[in-house]
Amino acid sequence: xxxxxxxxxxxxxxxxxxxxxxxxxxxxxxxxxxxxxxxxxxxxxxxxxxxxxxxxxxxxxxxxxxxxxxxxxxxxxxxxxxxxxxxxxxxxxxxxxxxxxxxxxxxxxxxxxxxxxxxxxxxxxxxxxxxxxxxxxxxxxxxxxxxxxxxxxxxxxxxxxxxxxxxxxxxxxxxxxxxx
Length: 180
Description:
Layout: H1 2-9, E1 14-17, H2 19-24, E2 32-35, E3 38-42, H3 47-64, H4 68-80, H5 85-98, H6 109-129, H7 131-138, H8 145-160
Parallel strand pairs: 1-3
Antiparallel strand pairs: 2-3
């Protein structure tokens, strides 16, 4: 599928999982997750959802693999946000998704970094599907969403080409059983 080929461009392994296994690990049917730079994706995920999901998860793999340009970008993400009720709502929703309680300002630095990584992944997943809609949505929480997406896209391109020169056999999901 296109989603799995996209992950393969980044050298990311994609493993198919059943919805039963996802449920056992606390995830909803038709979804997936990323651990240690490997994506586990429902074998029943629709193609359109898969494209957005993989775009989202590629962002998480940069954190998990310690990709320095992304780590530096994520450290600066919070400073891009406007202090507003809408920003607080977005952060609270992301905290709930990650299982954090309380106020964002009460989180420790590692937790805040995790929330900024989640924000980056959510925004970029939307951006890959509908750039104009994502820019308009991001404008409600930051002043320069175009600059934000431009910088994040540049970092993703650096991440994609970090292993240029590898043969197809070394390119992750291009050779997984999940590939069509």
